[in-house]
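Researcher: I'm comparing several assemblies side by side, and this is the next one on my list. It has 1518 residues spread over three chains. Same procedure as the others: predict the full complex and return the structure.
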Amino acid sequence: MIELVILLLIPLVVTFVAPFFNSRNATYLSFVSFMVPFFGILYYLMAGTSFEIPITKVSAPIGEFYLLADPIANAFGLTVCIVSAMVSIYSLPYMKHRFEEMEYEVESEFKKYIFLYNLYAVSMLWLVYCGNLILLYIFLELSLLASFALIYLYGYGNRQWVAVLYFVWTHIAGVLALIGFLIIAYENSTLALKNIAAISYTAWLLIFLGMLVKLPGLGPHIWLPWAHAEAPTPVSALLSPLTVGLAGFILLRIYLTDPWFIDMYRTPILIYALISSIYAGFSVFKQKDYKKLLAYSTVSQMGYCLIAICLGSYGAIALVIQYISHAFGKSILFMTAGAIIAVYHGLRDVEKMGGLHEYIPTISNAALLGFMTLGGILTIGMFGEFFILKGIVDIYEFNIWVIVAVVFVFILSGFYGFYTLKIIFYGTPKGFKTPKIDRMLDVPLYVIGLLSIAFIFPPLATGLLNALKVILGVLP
Amino acid sequence: MELSVLVALIVLSLGAALSFKDTRLVFATSLIALAIVFSTTWNVYTFFIIIIAALNIASLEVMKRSQIKGVDYALVALMGVATIYVFFVDDLATLLAMFVVVSVPTYLLVMVTDNKANVDVGIKYITFMVLATVLFIIGAILLVHSPHGGLMYVVGYTMLVLGLCIEIGVAPMHEWVPDVFTAADPIPISIIASLAKFVPFVVAYKILVSTTNPLTPFVTMILAVLAAISMFIGNIGALTSKETSRILAYSTVANMGYILATLTVIINFNWIYLALTGAMLQLIVNSMGKIGFFTAIKEGKGSTPLMYTLALSFIGLPPLMGFWSKLFILTSLVYVKYTWLAFVLVVNSAISVPYYIRIARNLSKGWMLSLANAIALIAVLIVLITVIPPDWFVEAMKNFSEMLFIKGV
Amino acid sequence: MIELIALLYLAPIFCSIPIAIAWGMEKKPEYARNLPMLSVFGLFISLLVSLYILFRVDVPTYTIEWLPEYNINFVFIFDYLSKYMGVLTAFIAFLIGVYGLEYMKDDYRLGWYWMFFNVFTASMLLVVYSDNLLMLLIGWEGLGIASWGLIGHWFRDDDPLSYVGIIDRKVWKLNMFWSPSFGGWRAISTIRFGDMPMFFAVAAIYALTGNLNISEIDWAALFHHIGPAGTLILILCFLMGPFTKSAQLPFSEWLMTAMTGPTTVSALLHSATMVAAGTYLFMRFSWYVEPWHVHSLGLEYIYILVLFSGLLSALYGAIVATGCLERKVLLAASTMSSLGLMFASSAASMWLGKIALYVAFWYLIVHAFAKATLFLVAGHLIHVTHDRFCVGDKEVAKKMKLAFIVTIFATISLSGIPPFTAYWVKSAMDEVMHHLTHEFGALPLTLLILTSIAYAAFLAKFLSLNFIKGEKAHLHLHGGNVMGLAYSIMVSMLAVLLILIVGEYEPHAGEFLKEGFVANSFMVGVAVLASYSFALYVPRIKQLSSVGTFLSDRMYLPFLNDFILPKVGWFIAKIIDYCNKAIDFFCHKAIPSAFEGWSIGIRAIQSGELNKYIKIVVGCVILVLAIISVLGW
């Protein structure tokens, strides 16, 4: 049990150590520091263990600080680890290119970068294991800070404006949730998840609204395309796959603690989620910027999470799987966008692309894996969709409108996926030259992609879903 | 304890007297006086006060010249001693005396500059301070002498709060703040914006807590409205200000709004320790930030990581102290059912993000070794102290909340 | 057993990995062009395993744990349908693999081709052998993605030979020609449109019964539980998958543009196996639901729907094919027609019992071999003539005797001319439709006969226009031995089937024999022969060329797919884009500038005049005191 703490400490320590190495070694070190916990967590997940590790007792109303290592945390932690590890490898060639473009001194700038990168990833890793809401909020804000700094320093376009915009929106999200947490603290005189007995209306509402901004739902979603498109691509590849989905994680934690709010307002939330998912799905088609396109797809996919949470206990399982599958898929896709930017000097306009498969087949094939994962074709996303659909029947039986809407959402994400593939990678080649691609720019994509496929077969699927069965006992 | 304060005062006056001989001597005696007081009163609160006072004294070194070189050290030390002493005082007369003791040295300090005494600013500042002091003292006396509530209590309460507002610069009585902050020298302003802010609040707390009665929830509303106005005016005003010191002036207005908001908690004594924790931590955060920023303004440059850390602390990012202070303020507001005020605070903390980042960007000029940077570094270390969750501070404030009551009321 | 299963599925996939990797290398190694042999070897292993399963495996099912906690496992079923279908799939895949060795020899994208080809085979085998619906869906999705990958194989869109339709032809505002990359997108989008409702149905079945094994679920109880309306929704959703995959009306367009893929792909995926998977699934479903025992109004409506949509699709496909001039598109339309017949015949099981399923299944087998043969010949012809339209006079027949003979045999066998293979199966089908007279009058039988006549006509037309009466073609004869061998073996299977039926070696197929001797069936056979002969003699009628254009434009069905739906979609997307712009403006322009305005207003107080300040402050103080006094009074 205590080994988990060591596993989680490794990347934390490396965060502070890595800047002392040269760029290549620092990258390898960060990679290893996330891979080790990955395998550890994988073991815990497959074994289906669930335990708590006390850290310290703080006086009321904050309550006990402890790590909660249940299968849900393990599933999220696993995803954070593998994506962070792969993106860290990918960062090296990409950020070198970016620093050269910005005319920075590569080695010294990379030290700054790798510190912030690791801090960002590790704060998300710790977040999912937090057993106390205040601790959770702290890591949430820490990850916000690190990602803000990364956008602020290395982003594209009007990066400082975008960074501040990102900061303001997510800060509102965080602090709204914080007030919710404080109301919980007042009513339960603790913030330790295991001791919270009830969550009142105002608290639930505030947390829900905060997470809606963070997730984001329709309306507040407007910040996301800016932030995710203008961030340096390795950061986009963490922001979009990992960070926004953590809002879903927090909602799930709150839901499992006291489900009454969702149970009571299930239908309006579901309608909102469906509209926002379909809305964002249609938005994808009009995007000209590849990264912005992916960002809108994230909004649509996060709609899945919101749909899932309205669908009872199987929906909750679907949420976890949806997080994993979206993380896998979207990290691959953002990395393909980054690879195109890196080899074609900032090419992001999809209208100028076309037939790119001719020149960068490895990237193109990885993008295929990415969109397959998003669409749930032959990849872990399939289980997510399966449990969402099962949840519909559990909760709404044969309500034709819900069925049509959800099915349409799924169809739409397949549509924009293959449409995007077609306009970017297939069709008549447009006379680019064939670049030499650094293997670090494409191998990590395949690792994630293959893992995503491996997760529908035993033993990974068996282990994951057996472990997630704990959710079924808790909810109605 | 009284003895140690007495000794400290003697040491201080001796030092001040020696100032015409060697200013370094005053520097030493000032620190000694602080140390003497601290040695008999040490707890977390006094610890932070000592640090702030010491930083203020050290920051005076950044000024090349000063009209009252030497005496200024003693004045700051005197304020420090008073700020510590007010913590333990439990009679009205001494409290009000301490209020004046901390207020008056700033009249002098505000006019100090590198070359020529800035009398214009002095006049503006002193006018407001006198008004504030009068209102505050009248209000305090009315409060103490209206044991059964009634209109006397309501009027007294309002006058005291208004006096407090003018003294510390809460909108809409904040007009002096932007002018004085931009026109005066940054170093004295850093003192006015940091050390001088504690005593008015502590005194107000003590008097208001001691005189609560069934009318309190009603009059508290006026306070809450003032706090909300102040937050909005401060933060929005700062958004488009160009000069860094002007931004900081508006930031002070906003911060004073946050702290004023905690005074709403006197309607429920159970949570007063949370309010105190929030208020005191926010005062410390504000002090650290203002000291760090103003010394950097004085020098014209600050080091990048320090400036950004201070800015983020103001924004309220964990685990910096600025997060914990806002956390406890929010907690206390939520507990006394002032959720709307908590909500206003949240909105304001979001509005404040752009301009704090702008301050940091304006001041950041890379790494360098200088006194100003050393001061900023210490300030940063202080805001980083809460990497350990400030349970210890809450405990201290619990004890403090027991000592809030004034004798004979 | 588990080793066998592993071999069956993993052999083709693993054997194609080397070529995929070798082709992805920046400098292709020299041996890369030989690696397809390995892929075909993988297909061969699958074939051996499937044969072993046919002859030696007696257990009904075999289970491998997958999600045991959820009662979802990999369940392989070995029944009448799956045993034959498995061998059929593996055999045709292997033979077309061999053909592909020569056909795709000089291609620029072998890694992609063989990877997807073998993934397709494995997926198809998974669909064939699976009893569990979720496991079947894995294979099902595999089919979809492989189909997409192979249709869009020539992604460069630079080879006119790979298009469908006359390039640069426009009807009103619509381009009537389709590139491979477009064909791929259209295929996957249509299939996706059907797969998702089907996926829902599978999840719903799981939610309602807690079981996903087709053979174990108590279907009658399920239908009873959810009532007629529920049954209708559930099964209709379920059948959306088979309908789209088997290109029934109105989802047929994707199959026509799927002809942009290599001919091997058209032969394997878009005639013999993948598109047949939809009908196969419907047969399997009916096999275990046993609709003839279930009394459910909802189910009856569904079967009526399938019956008529199948017959209408069959007729539509056959008529369209008579107007087609492109070799592969003609065959694609005919495939659609055959699939319709399979659906219709299976649906008849509602009233006639299992016999209808046997008819449908045997028609599937016959059709698979015959149509694959025709496609392979078409591929060879395209290679030789460098033209995808039907061209070729007697010189072609002379120079390519083998292809000529094979085509004659395949067309005759498929069209249902007595006493060749399809005649017996078609006769049984005639009888099945005849029996439905009680329920629906003569309509089903009429539709079937019309379809059969049109069917024979376009097959003869295909033969005639390519070998006898077509325009003169310039031939590029070289190689072709492997291809010739492959389609010769393929067509010889039709003879084997004929022997199996006529010799009554296969008990169920043997039963068709007596139907062939019914007078009605024989008359239909004669009518078919007449139509065949006529079309052979007059392959094109000049006076009807405008009708022909109407037909070869698929009765303008492309307008639905390529015009109406995209217009609606883009319209919505445009509106939403404006919404996004508005929200963006509001949040990131309007609000910040409002704050700026307020900020400037707030700062405007700072005039620097002490008098004014004092007035403001004293005013405030008095105001507050006044308010509080009034309120406090």
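Model: For your comparison table: Chain C touches chain A through 60 residues (CB under 8 Å).
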